[in-house]
Amino acid sequence: MGEARRRKELGLPPREKLIETKLPTLDKKAIQKKVRSFLYQNQIIPVAFYAALIAILVWGAYNLLKVYKLI
To answer: I want to staple 12 with a disulfide (CB 3.0 to 4.6 A). Which of 6, 7, 45, 58 is the partner?
Structure first.
């Protein structure tokens, strides 16, 4: 006995077919243009990012030296 016949006998509606969902495609060139234009307009952001990165590295190295009592 098939599922469709059994559902009909039980008074249930037919099973809904699954719809395959596709992931949206990203336009890499458009995103790259937006990011570059944003960074060109706000030139302090890359400088601040690299300064923060260097500060974190120096702070981490200092704390490692302090913990192992090399200073």
So the answer is: 7
